């Protein structure tokens, strides 16, 4: 029975995929339609209790713009977990997500727990990336996959719970 003091966790993915919205949903239970673009990175915390253990997430929400790419290693270095987000209505963001996965596999912490989040799952009629394609990619690359919606509060708590569960098992 050990208690984690803290877990460094990073959110990566293209601008506009909903990274900040996922964090806002998880940390404050809120959603805003006109979420401001993140400048550089933003920091949030939330503690989850799992049975008799607690995981304090220290979350770095990154900007996603290419011009901030060189800063990304500061945020993923030493991170125990990462959420890589794409937008299910935008295939280019899925391509970008795969690039982040490759970068984390090459430069990230050994054994990092990685979650692939197909966000905006409320926009089903605009879907361009199938769940099957993303799931197959996730399984081949040793990350777990969930479709999420920060707006509709779908799978946001669940993705953090699954990360915590995997961290506690490892
Ligand atoms: P970030 O650049 O990855 O941090 O993305 P933001 O969190 O700033 O979100 C970009 C835009 O997408 C904002 O207008 C959000 O309101 C919207 N958005 C974020 N998550 C969702 C979602 O789950 N569903 C829908 N429909 N819109 C979302
Ligand atoms: Mg943002």
UniProtKB/TrEMBL annotation:
Molecular function (GO) terms for this protein are:
GTP binding; GTPase activity
Q: Name one Pfam family in it.
A: Ras
**Gene3D superfamilies (alphabetical):** P-loop containing nucleotide triphosphate hydrolases
How would you describe this protein's topology in the membrane?
Answer: Lipid-anchor
Cite the entry's keywords alphabetically.
GTP-binding, Lipoprotein, Membrane, Nucleotide-binding, Prenylation, Protein transport, Transport
Fetch the InterPro entries from UniProt.
Answer: P-loop_NTPase (IPR027417), Small_GTP-bd (IPR005225), Small_GTPase (IPR001806)
List, in alphabetical order, the GO biological process terms annotated in this UniProt record: protein transport
GO CC annotations, alphabetized: cytoplasm; endomembrane system
Subcellular location(s): the record lists: Endomembrane system
Superkingdom classification of source: Eukaryota
User: Which family does the record assign?
Assistant: Belongs to the small GTPase superfamily. Rab family.
UniProt-recorded name of the protein: Uncharacterized protein
């Amino acid at each position: 029975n050990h208690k984690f003091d803290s877990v460094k966790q990073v959110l990566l993915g293209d601008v506009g995929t909903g990274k900040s919205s996922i964090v806002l949903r998880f940390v404050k239970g809120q959603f805003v339609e006109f979420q401001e673009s993140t400048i550089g990175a933003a920091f949030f915390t939330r503690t989850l209790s799992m049975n008799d253990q607690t995981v304090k997430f220290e979350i770095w929400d990154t900007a996603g713009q290419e011009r901030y790419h060189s800063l990304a290693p500061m945020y993923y270095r030493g991170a125990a977990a990462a959420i890589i987000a794409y937008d299910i209505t935008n295939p280019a963001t899925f391509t970008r997500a795969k690039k982040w996965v490759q970068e984390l596999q090459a430069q990230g912490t050994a054994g990092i727990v990685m979650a692939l989040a197909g966000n905006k799952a409320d926009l089903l009629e605009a879907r361009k990336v199938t769940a099957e394609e993303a799931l197959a990619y996730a399984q081949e690359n040793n990350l777990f996959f969930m479709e999420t919606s920060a707006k509709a509060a779908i799978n946001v708590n669940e993705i953090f719970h699954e990360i915590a569960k995997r961290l506690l098992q490892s």
